[in-house]
Design a protein that fits this description.
- 9% of the residues lie in helices and 53% in strands.
- It folds into 4 domains: 37-111, Immunoglobulin-like (Sandwich), CATH 2.60.40.1120; 114-188, Sandwich (Immunoglobulin-like); 191-265, Immunoglobulin-like; 270-388, Immunoglobulin-like (Sandwich), CATH 2.60.40.
- The protein is elongated.
- With 389 residues, the chain is mainly beta.
- Strand 9 and strand 10 form a beta hairpin.
- The protein has helices spanning 2-29, 382-388, and strands at 37-45, 51-55, 61-63, 68-75, 80-89, 95-102, 106-111, 113-122, 128-132, 138-140, 145-153, 157-166, 172-179, 183-188, 190-199, 205-209, 215-217, 222-230, 234-243, 246-256, 260-265, 270-276, 283-290, 310-315, 318-326, 331-339, 344-349, 353-354, 377-380.
Length: 389
């Protein structure tokens, strides 16, 4: 009897072990660490318009108002991924975002509207008008502001064309970014636009602005001009300029509100200064000719040079020949004079080589340099300039 009971106990123990082993096998088969779980992304269109959507770079599809779509990924327990979504309204700007999708969960991403706006503030002392994206004109008195709102998709950014101006002046064009959920502040302010004019040559220069009075700048000096403008506003000015070592020229310069425009006047020539050092005789003609040219060319004096007077020309750097003719027809000649950039060379007529007075258009010298000098000569009216100093 005892042996029978022992056998029963042994059989019961074996059965329990077998049963427990079977249960463990079942648990292993259902272990979530060993088999994938779905992570689901649910995209809902909560707008009134069709929305085009692409997930993870897949082909786009159209999601109608009120509809939703689900995307599923096989993930391990605890695993999470970042799903990339691109969406937009027809004709609108695409919005790119990422959404976290986790194993065993449904992540809902709702496409809906968010307001974005522009706060436009007139901080100038003028009445201004403005226009957004070519629409109707609006007006703002000094100190006034307006807030313009836009219905945007969540995460969307748009760029708005803004045009504004003081009444009666040229408009300013710019663009303003507007982001869903935010208000962009754009302030129209009254600022100075600066113009700096500097003399980079070694002698005086003269300039005027828009045909106004001549101003003199000594070597190394700087003039500053200020213009009352709106922020980003622009105006132009015509600078006419000349100098001892600067050929006459002009340049249109743009000045922008809040910025400084720099304009440098630099030497592009050298100078020839000739003085009549004779006691009683007038000089009636002076010819300046590049040394490489066999011809004297035209008279560069355009008048009479009396004793004690001098005359100044700006010329191209290089080698120059000079012919002066007095009132009696006598000629005074100086050959092969080197003129350097931004330097003046002075000549005194009283002891030069003197010819027999039979002036011709041709020079009477044997050697002509191979290097040609640009034939550019400009007579300077120094009496007017010196009176402005």
């Amino acid at each position: 009897m005892l042996a029978k009971n022992k056998l029963t106990i042994i059989l019961i123990f074996i059965a329990i072990v077998i049963l427990m082993s079977g249960c463990k096998i079942l648990v292993d088969e259902d272990d979530p660490h060993s088999y994938p779980q779905e992570g689901i992304l649910k995209i809902v269109n909560d707008t009134e318009y069709n929305v085009w959507i692409s997930v993870e770079g897949a082909p786009e599809y159209n999601l109608e108002p009120g509809e939703y779509v689900e995307h599923a990924w096989d993930l391990q327990e605890g695993e999470a991924i970042q799903a990339e979504i691109e969406y937009y309204l027809a004709g609108g700007n695409p919005v790119l975002t990422t959404v976290t999708v986790e194993a065993g969960y449904i992540t809902t991403f709702t496409i809906d509207y968010e307001s974005g706006g522009i706060h436009l503030q007139n901080n100038s002392s003028f009445e201004i008008w403005y226009q957004l994206d070519g629409g109707a004109l609006h007006y703002l008195d000094p100190g006034e502001y307006e807030v313009i709102t836009y219905e945007l998709l969540h995460g969307e950014t748009i760029w708005v064309d803004l045009e504004y101006a003081i009444i009666g002046s040229e408009p300013v064009f710019t663009t303003v970014g507007v982001e869903a959920g935010y208000v962009t502040v754009f302030t129209v302010e009254q600022v100075n636009g600066e113009l700096q004019i500097s003399n980079e040559s070694s002698r005086d220069v003269w300039y005027d602005l828009d045909g106004g009075a001549d101003k003199t700048l000594h070597a190394g000096e700087v003039d500053e001009w200020s213009y009352d403008l709106l922020v980003y506003d622009q105006t132009t000015t015509d600078i006419s300029y000349s100098g001892y070592h600067v050929f006459s020229n002009s340049s249109f310069q743009t000045i922008t509100g809040g910025y400084t425009t720099f304009f440098d006047i630099a030497a592009d020539g050298g100078g020839i200064d000739i003085e009549n050092d004779m006691n009683y005789t007038d000089i009636t003609a002076i010819y300046l000719s590049p040394s490489s040219d066999p011809n004297w060319g035209v008279d560069d004096l355009y008048g009479t040079l009396s004793p004690g007077e001098d005359v100044f020309w700006t010329v191209s750097p290089g080698s120059w020949d000079i012919l002066a003719i007095d009132e009696d027809g006598a000629e005074y000649i100086s050959y092969d004079n080197t003129i350097y950039l931004d330097q003046t060379r002075s000549f005194f007529i009283d002891g030069w080589k003197k010819s027999d007075g039979k002036n011709t258009d041709m020079k009477s010298k044997e050697y002509y340099p191979d290097v040609k000098t640009k034939d550019r000569v400009e007579l300077k009216n120094l009496e007017d300039k010196n009176s402005n100093n």
